[in-house]
Write a structure and sequence with these properties.
Two copies of one chain form a homodimer. Chain A is of the alpha+beta class. The first copy, chain A, contains 18 helices and 24 strands. In chain A, a hairpin with a 2-residue loop joins strand 10 and strand 11. In chain A, helix 6 runs parallel beside helix 8, helix 11 packs antiparallel against helix 12 and helix 11 packs parallel to helix 13. The relative contact order of chain A is 0.09.
Chain lengths: ~650, ~650
């Protein structure tokens, strides 16, 4: 355990009692993971068959047939396994455990003698392996295997999957690197960097950290590996060459230390940056860390939607350029937001600065959770901020935007990714370093942490994200510190210990309470959580003259179901007053917001003219408006939705 | 000559003296057509080689080599020839005439014995002809040949090109039709319908009209010809199948009489609808005419930009759906606007209703003329209403939008199309029917028309589009009628004859003056032409809460050159007062508009935050604004441009 950085609490150290997250974890355990197991086994009626388990069965000699699905189909099963590991870390689940062990048994049989494990190449010709790192996701699948293996080992203390991972990692380490005779390749889709660091942390094997560092530092070096690889492979066609991004689609057009602006495929970028942060922290590489900081700032200050979503364009599922944040043609892949959480969590390990946690919270409670239906069986790939259903159908530039969540996808990266982040939310909420327990997110639970050698127990109760009161009860006596984040959105707060107001100052957005605690001491943090209307930076063309509605960590939206169609005609004054209503029976229990707005009505269009002189002032009709949390949209049928509305 | 419909005056009947159009015709004659001749002969340094003439030379046995360029490369030369014909109809030009005759001579040698003439198939394998009507543009090229041949015959009274056209038309007539043994095909890209009707009008050969009617009525009949054709051709891949449009990309998914909403590729649609109108009028087919009326209404009332541009999406260069008119991702191909002029001109022949002429004028003076640089050597394919140069470069969804006109294109349909419409503008301005001369557009000139057997001469002087005074002088004594359009944008007008105010009522937007004229009688039409702020129908999402600035027939825009960057921050009140300035030295002479607007400035972003609470009211800073005519944008370097601005 690296003592110079804050370590997230393991999932097993927290019993989540949070009234918002606990039911979601239950949905993942009770519905989503069994449902996804059926999907991975091609048992979902009407859904695209995954073939993911079957590919492994064929590779293991347990079944016959050809590989089907994406070239990275293996990773769906790995991500599912990782999510199951988090569930098992929380509490036993015999059915999921049995499914997972069955899958791992198949993987063990499928793994080749030399450690290689990738069903696509095993079933399509092993001699072609390592010939298309650019697009064929071998190292990506390996990375997800490593992450799953570490999680499963930590959850179950069984090492069958870990041994599979280690064998494969050793093979990869023998193949790639700068040493004579090794290939100087690196993955087209990053994630192996994070996976190798995880493997290093659990096994203590320094080669894995070194290999992760190699993959990062070799990336984008001249001559470009992907260019050389394509030449060798019959001058293979390079799709992204046609686009502005070219090799930056893969973040591989120049050395990563020269990359200070987030570019290319957003999920790949997040996985790379998170891996860079991991390697930088583990190796004490301040230069690399400052690159991570610059990239984080570029995203948070110039390329992030108010929902924490990233990836402005469908072309390459990519970033575009600063302040280009269209709401309707947006990509905002669920996995990209999840990747942003990975990146933010790692930056928080390095420095308890709330700007990282603010982004983490914004993404998690909005642009990540919007990716799943309330019942956990339908998923969004794209998370738009403005939807007109007819456009999704009839305008091919917006066909990637769906007005309703889908059962499953041919490329089903997002559903298992959601499962793993929801079940491991505790690791994003809490971290320990020295004598300090960091509370980044107010996820209610009972936790155990080792603080400067002392085993400490604590209870946290919160009505988050609906209420701003958080109670932290120290269950263990002793001297240690609590670091409580005051979110960036909060502009009035107070903290008391055992009912007595404590004087506390913010250090990078955190309150530090370092005390001799008695068992039962209670800290009450009160965060004011009024409805807040928000404007976007005036450099954002799409949002100029518009307002968004937020309350606490949540972004709200208007849906057609509550407010009728033609939401683009709605306008609001910046000093609008809101009523907050708790609606326990709506959308699994939400707080809705209510206000008066207007509909813009241009006079002069009585005869359906397309254009008419603006002789008269715009007229407006008052309308009552109902706002729901953005994450809960599209759970009541197909209709329009918008986050931003015009400012009156 | 069909007496039941109004006949446009031939180009040769009008000597254009118009201060706005005459210089443009001179640019076309003096710069554009010689420049395009160089382009078609691959003599433009730095531009894509066209190979258009060379393809004909090879087919004629005058040169050796392979076909290069688009499958419809022949049509570029045909359109150029047609434009040259209009120039020659206006006045002799020995150099252009020599080039044209040279090209026609090559075509004559290239034409096969059986009449076939298409360099793509002649050079790539004649046995494959007629096997891919869907995408390979054979009948499209033929259609442009017919149009060029008719224009050249009318201009020069030489029939070499007309005979080439007739031979080819006879071949096509022998191949296609419903008779036993004939192919039931029709073109993937329409235009032959218009071309055949032209050929019928000049030759009197009824088979050509019948064939045009066949192509229209067979289109979209079940079983779908293109589907059958693709099956026969090794199940050829059908690109548009992936899109919402499918066969409607070609307007070929259902019979044309069932098509009342404009769909698919906008240029194809316009050419089809214009051809339908031609056939409907020539055959007295009221049902088909009512389909044309419905289609025209759908475009004019639901799918047209304020600049007269059409085609909302780059995907398929197509229409999307009603009121979907994004300003920045728009397609708005120059050829589509030209096609809309064709369609509107034909509807005007059927009925002198100003709504047709309003659309014609709107398109011609705005979205068509914007397609060419002021010097006639640079061209836009896409005519956006809002441009952010960085988006054109870095957002692949907007890469089709260019911030500056290009020299030439691989697919160079637009440049010669511009040449032909500019030079034939007189045919759009004037028409004759019975004893009436229709003046649809106020194009100054001296004209001759035969009205009920009387040869009439007339002089028209106008300062259009800058000034609203139009003088029409009757040079021939006699009883006949003048029909003068009062444009839809005009809300105050008066008319006098020889200085005496005439009482006149509008009939579908036209003033009819039926008198016994004396030679020298002068009609003065005064059209009030104030600056008018315009709103879009509130169903248009992209324009809600915005204003556009117009004056007379012209739409104005803001350019960065005059108003700085970040034009999205500009806002205007609907009762803004404007100053109109004549600037003879700016942009070849324009009237600019000047007013006070504001820049929106959101407080709270001092530290570059992406989002901030809207505690304070939006602040605004007054700024002086300079507006230029939309057609003249992008003649002063690369910068932002917008037509619509926020309404305060």
């Amino acid at each position: 355990m690296n003592k110079t950085i804050a370590n997230p609490l393991p999932v097993s150290a927290v019993r989540v009692t949070d009234p918002f997250f606990a039911p979601r974890i239950n949905v993942v355990r009770g519905q989503m993971l069994p449902y996804q197991w059926d999907a991975l086994n091609d048992r979902l009626p009407g859904a695209e068959p995954s073939h993911s388990v079957e590919n492994f069965r064929i590779a293991a000699g347990l079944s016959r047939g050809a590989h089907h699905g994406m070239v990275f189909q293996d990773s769906d099963l790995y991500k599912w396994l990782e999510a199951v590991a988090y569930v098992l870390a929380i509490e036993p689940d015999n059915a999921l455990r049995a499914h997972a062990d069955e899958a791992i048994g198949i993987m063990e049989r499928a793994q080749r003698q030399d450690g290689y494990l990738n069903t696509y190449y095993q079933l399509n010709g092993i001699d072609r392996r390592w010939t298309n790192l650019q697009d064929n996701h071998e190292l990506y699948c390996a990375g997800h295997l490593f992450e799953a293996a570490v999680a499963y080992y930590l959850a179950t203390q069984t090492d069958k999957l870990l041994r599979i991972a280690v064998r494969y990692a050793d093979l990869i380490d023998s193949v790639f690197g700068v040493d004579e005779g090794k290939m100087r390749g690196y993955p087209g889709h990053e994630v192996i960097e994070m996976g190798l660091v995880q493997l290093y942390r659990v096994t203590g094997e320094a080669r894995y950290l070194k290999l992760a560092k190699y993959f990062i530092d070799q990336r984008g070096q001249s001559p470009l590996y992907f260019e050389e690889e394509a030449k060798k492979d019959n001058n293979r066609k390079f799709y992204w060459d046609k686009t502005y991004m070219r090799y930056q689609y893969y973040q591989a057009g120049k050395p990563v230390r020269e990359q200070t602006v987030a570019e290319g495929h957003a999920v790949r970028a997040m996985y790379l940056y998170a891996g860079m942060a991991d390697v930088a922290m583990e190796t004490g590489d301040d230069e690399l860390l400052s690159v991570c900081e610059a990239l984080f700032t570029d995203i948070a200050d110039r390329q992030m939607y108010i929902t924490g979503a990233i990836g402005a364009t469908e072309v390459g599922e990519s970033f575009t350029y600063g302040y280009d944040l269209p709401n309707d043609t947006v990509y905002a892949e669920t996995c990209a937001q999840i990747g942003l959480c990975f990146f933010a969590q790692r930056m928080l390990r390095h420095s308890a600065d709330r700007r990282y946690a603010d982004v983490l919270e914004r993404a998690l409670y909005n642009g990540v959770l919007s990716g799943m239906s309330l019942d956990g069986t339908r998923f969004f790939y794209v998370n738009p901020l403005e939807v007109t259903p007819i456009a999704c159908e009839q305008d091919d530039l917006r066909r990637h935007v769906k007005p309703e969540r889908q059962q499953w996808y041919t490329c089903s990266c997002c559903p298992p990714n959601l499962a793993r982040i929801v079940c491991s939310a505790a690791s994003y909420a809490y971290a320990a370093k020295g004598d300090t327990l960091y509370v980044h997110l107010y996820l209610g639970g009972e936790l155990k942490a080792r603080l400067d050698g002392l085993d400490v127990e604590m209870k946290i109760e919160s009505g988050y994200p609906w209420k701003g009161e958080v109670r932290v009860r120290a269950m263990t006596a002793g001297r240690y510190a609590l670091a409580l984040r005051v979110p960036g959105w909060c502009r009035g707060w107070s903290v008391s210990i055992n009912g007595e107001r404590a004087d506390a100052e913010l250090d990078k957005g955190y309150i530090y309470l370092r005390c001799d605690w008695a068992a039962g001491d209670e800290v009450l943090l009160s965060l004011e959580m009024p409805v807040t209307l928000v404007r976007a930076n005036p450099a954002i063309r799409e949002d100029i003259g518009k307002l968004a509605v937020t309350r606490g960590p949540l972004v709200y939206c208007l849906e057609e179901a509550d407010n009728g169609a033609d939401l683009h005609q709605i306008a609001l004054s910046h000093d609008t007053q809101f009523e907050v209503r708790h609606q326990p029976d709506l959308l699994n229990g939400v707080y809705t917001l209510h206000c008066s707005g207007v509909r813009l009505q241009s006079p002069g269009f009585e005869n359906n003219a397309l254009y008419a002189p603006a002789d008269q002032a715009l007229s407006t009709t008052p309308v009552p408006l109902t706002w729901i949390p953005y994450y809960a949209w599209a759970n009541r049928g197909i209709g329009e939705m918008t986050v931003w509305v015009k400012e009156l």
